[in-house]
Predict the structure.
Amino acid sequence: MTTDNPVVGLINPGAMGTPIGCAALASGARVCWVSMDRSPESTTRAQSSGFEGVATEDELVARCELIISVCPPHAAVEVARRIAALEFKGLYVDANAISPETSRDIGALVESGGARFVDGSIIGGPPVERGTTRLYLSGPAAAKAQQYFAKGLFDVVVVDDIIGSASALKMAYAAWTKGSDALLLNIRALAVARGVEAALLAEWRQSMPGLAERSQAAVEGSVPKAWRFIGEMQQIADTLAATNLPDGFHRGAEAVYDRLSGYKNQTDLDMTEVLTALARPSTGQTGH
């Protein structure tokens, strides 16, 4: 850190951004966020965590020596573009689920405004204890950025000094975790539509124990976040394509999550209803 009382800017105090901000607090920083025109949920999270509200992104840029972006993947470039336009001169950490190529594009954007860029990614859910969730960082300034979050609930890991490495790790990891959830949901929707779900579940219980339960967990865990995973599947597919690997499955996973995006943040979902909705033509407006 460059001062005894550093100020960290948090772009979004969401379910994951809030513990990131708390990690900065635990590491000795003050945390600011733009509080104007935000949802009641974000406001409650930020205020209860001790974050300081500012009125505009101009004020955030003026006060902070590090800004970290934790937002849905589709918004990452636009957030960076706004911060770059304000000529932020500190450290800019993008911790979003984006491809290495998108990360490098964001780095070029913020560096054009005078910032130093750190590539980041998060693996694991919002932490409630240490040892469950990692914040990965890469790039020449990664070790410096690590200091701002070292004492929170995240294990903060410097991958290397190459911009894009932290994002590549996230893409490889989520390609399996969220991609396989989409595959399971698609398979069960096929079985429902063809009238063989009971037979499939019986076969799974015999030959692949636990798979039926995992598909249920996909409904509970991934369907309410499907709206967010659309962009992540796009980024994974783009990463595969840029690496000269087949990208078709994750384009399909993108379509699965698009069809389920209307279930945003819903709980107590009915498995049969979700699977039936998945088999309908895509409108991006499934759910209630």
